[in-house]
Amino acid sequence: MALTEEIARRRTFGIISHPDAGKTTLTEKLLLYGGAIQEAGAVKSNKIKKGATSDFMEIERQRGISVATSVLAFHYKGKKINILDTPGHKDFAEDTFRTLTAVDSVIVVIDVAKGVEEQTEKLVEVCRMRNIPMLVFINKLDREGKDAFELMDEVESKLGLKVTPLTLPIGMGYNFKGIYNRWNNTAQIFTGEEKQSKTSTESYADLKAPELKDRIGENTLAQLEEELELVDGVYPHFDLEAYRAGALQPVFFGSALNNFGVQDLLDCFVDIAPPPQPKAADTVVVAPDAADFSGFVFKIHANMDPNHRDRLAFVKIVSGVFKRNTPYLHVRHNKKLKFSSPNAFFAEKKQVVDTSYPGDIIGLHDTGNFKIGDTLTEGKSLQFKGIPSFSPEHFRYINNADPMKAKQLNKGIDQLMDEGVAQLFTLHLNGRKVIGTVGALQFEVIQYRLEHEYNAKCSYENVNVHKACWVATHEEDHPEFVEFKRVKQKFLAQDKQGQLVFLADSAFSLQMTQQKYPSLDFHFSSEF
Ligand code: G4P
């Protein structure tokens, strides 16, 4: 198959939701349709369950599962579908943000009873900022929840989206009868067999069909007709271009657990979701059909097996064809690397592949060459943009608790930072190290992993930092910059790339500093 055909048939997307909305259940049902798994219950949830075990044991268990579920690929109606896993736990939100740089679209899952929740708001905001095309799936219609129209209003107001329903529920909760599919203009009435077989709905193209009235009742039918009229009057027509530009979000209703409305979602998804998209690099925008291979690392999994201290770097292919055993340029190191056993993912299995195409994700075995954001090319010196580090929320000094193991500790910290577990800031004044994380859980993760994977011990100490921001100047010898560096010396540090960082001790001092040095730029993510 030609490169353009391979590109045209790929759909790479992520499912985002607040924990418990049904992301895992929906993923599993999609895999069942793709024939990639045979039975429900096969996809394990990677969410962190509080309770029985201590957090870090749970994290280790979760890391094990999330290698397997990082990419779930399957074939459906001639398309190759890649689902990228996104952790729902808020302490791992940065992993999710990074994964979102590798998707071409997303499905947002919302619980019909709970409506729009906090984590959904944050993740959708990131997608909106990047104009990522989004579909919304309102789940758990088999339970009593909010009214469909009320929910769509909530999605518009809380998430700042512009929606149009492509399916509508017929009844809800105990009275949930089916859905009306506006994409192919049919009423899909459930027969109760859906859990086992995939297609046991009765389909009615004509709402006047007498059997339909018999099946759902006169009142429900009248309500459906009224609602369809309302939808036509109030919501915009579906527009493919607007959806793909991130300006219009189609909404679907259903129940993942009961397999209601999932096939309607999937069938429409394969019709409308965008194939792999061009990606901006520092000097050019790279189109997927460019002949030269290029790709970037968006995730690193390390040291799952203590006997093999290697890591798996997940690369999204942006352009061209990736081939096994071919030397590619690691742009940051300006070094050619060859990969003898690149992994591709199918359902929950890894397998060695010879060639991969744009939209695909490959796992490259790595002994410490990669960090998140690295670019691989066939020879061009370009760097893909868009994987920033965000200003962390929590800060602590990290100290060496075993002086004999300083080397191990430094190596461990270095590699964990490359993996993107947290960020390291080294103070200018005394060289002390401050770790900044998105969630408090990461401190436990780091301590546990340093001990178990690197045989090093660390301790933490409180440090009074409110916010870290990256400082940039247009002129190195500008008097304001010189004075800023002298006066704020105590609060200055450098990140792992050597960029200047200001560790403000309070919101007030940050504000005052910004006012006092107007010629300097203060950034809250590392990419500017
Ligand atoms: P997540 O990945 O988004 O965190 O959610 P997950 O799929 O694990 O689903 C969270 C809970 O919601 C699960 O129940 C799941 O069975 C249930 N669920 C998912 N879809 C539906 C649906 O359409 N209707 C109903 N009624 N429930 C649904 P649990 O009791 O937490 O877990 P489990 O013991 O069933 O695995």
Key descriptive features of the protein:
528 residues; alpha+beta; Rossmann fold; Elongation Factor Tu (Ef-tu), domain 3; 8-stranded antiparallel sheet; 7-stranded mixed sheet; 31 strands; binds guanosine-5',3'-tetraphosphate
What's this model, at a glance?
This protein is α+β, with helices and mostly antiparallel strands. It is built from 14 helices and 31 strands.
> How can the largest sheet be summarized?
8 strands, antiparallel
CATH topology of the largest domain: Rossmann fold
DSSP strand count? 31
Strand content range: 25-35%
The total number of structural domains is 3
Strand order of the largest sheet: 27-24-26-25-29-30-28-31
* Assembly classification: single chain
The second-level CATH architecture of the largest domain is 3-Layer(aba) Sandwich
Q: Which residues sit in consecutive blocks of at least 5 with pLDDT less than 50?
A: none
Mean pLDDT: 89
Instruction: Note the overall shape.
Output: globular
Task: Figure out the total of helices.
Answer: 14
Separation, N- and C-terminal Cα atoms: 40 Å
Helix content: 25-40%
Let me know the CATH homologous superfamily of the largest domain.
Answer: P-loop containing nucleotide triphosphate hydrolases
Kindly name the structural category. alpha+beta
Q: Measured on Cα atoms, how large is the radius of gyration?
A: 25 Å
CATH class of the largest domain: Alpha Beta
Bound molecules: guanosine-5',3'-tetraphosphate
Structure in words:
This protein has 528 residues and is an alpha+beta fold. It folds into three domains: 3-272, P-loop containing nucleotide triphosphate hydrolases (Rossmann fold, 3-Layer(aba) Sandwich), CATH 3.40.50.300; 279-377, Translation factors (Elongation Factor Tu (Ef-tu), domain 3, Beta Barrel); 394-523, Alpha-Beta Plaits (2-Layer Sandwich), CATH 3.30.70.3280. It has 14 helices and 31 strands. The protein has an eight-stranded antiparallel beta sheet. A seven-stranded mixed beta sheet has the order 2-3-1-4-5-11-6, with helices on both faces. It has a six-stranded antiparallel beta sheet with strand order 18-17-23-14-15-22. The protein is globular. The two termini are 40 Å apart. The protein binds guanosine-5',3'-tetraphosphate (G4P).
